[in-house]
Amino acid sequence: MKKMTIIILISLAALLIAVFLTVTLAFGSKDHSEYDLPKHSATGQRTNESNEHKAIAQLIISDMEKPTKLSNKELTRLMRKQMDERGLAFKIDAEIKPVNAGGVEAEWILAPNANPNRRLLYIHGGAYVMGSPKSHRLITSRLSRIANAAVLVIDYRLMPEHSRMDGIEDCRKAYAWILENGPTGQSLVEKLIIIGDSSGGNLALSTIAWARDNKLRTADAVVSMSPQTDLTLTSPSLIKNIDTDIMQGKSFGPIVKAPKFFKLGFSFLFHKVNPSNSIVSPLLGDLSNLPPTLIQASEAEMFLDDAVRYVNKANDQGSKAILQTWPFVMHVWHAFQVPEADEAFNEIEKFLNVHTMDTSTKAIE
Q: Lesser CB count within 10 Å: N end or C end of the chain?
């Protein structure tokens, strides 16, 4: 009996070692620490956090400290509802037109006098499990105005009801569709902009690489707000900024502090895709021949170095990418009515003006 017990224990140990090696080797990626430098100086114009941002940040902290006895399914349903309600609470000066974008439910957001042939594909954030066109109307209506563009906001399929690849496929369908369809019907796009935030920023960066590889018309400009770019979870700021990231630190912090084996295993189980696959980790792919890209991130958020590494690697491989950072602010601060968001949108407007004006009058950079 003792001998059998020893054999079982040895077998279990061997199995655990095999699983550990398989996960580490199969899901790990090339070390990207070479792209940690140069660091980028802050773009934010203020040295102190605005009172408006402080007030909203405190509300978010208070909400996160409230205990909940809900199941994961119930909590996801509640958070989706709250995100949509928050988005619908804002009064926006834009027309909303529901549309089916090549099989993907979506809506057009049209600021007054927006040019229907200048089009912006917006991919919302929400950790791949939340968010909708409704939740992000404050952002999308503002983008329609500053870009003078018709904004297509897609309601891509979310996890866990759908696979991660379903959401990716919806982004690709919408990209192909917007090239030939506008808010007034079928017509070729004149200027194309792609923008996403957080998980939507990840999807936007993944989509532009797919478009390049499939030889589709490239975007004239890309903006990614606080994106996650590496699902293998190796960026230094994931650990360094746990205490300063008020939106993700408590929920995401314990995961990124775990040993590499557990982090990779969690990422695979959550996404059901190898985290080292560049389809879900744009940083790990080929970043050459991509459209001009602006990434904005908070110096206090956990995804800061995801942005730093992506921009440094893109420039190293010959693409034009710019990183702008703000001190103090929360993850995707663009979604709130705060002065720091005004600064960020002013920078986005400048970037779009350079890259989407008529070529005959395009400014020299």
A: N
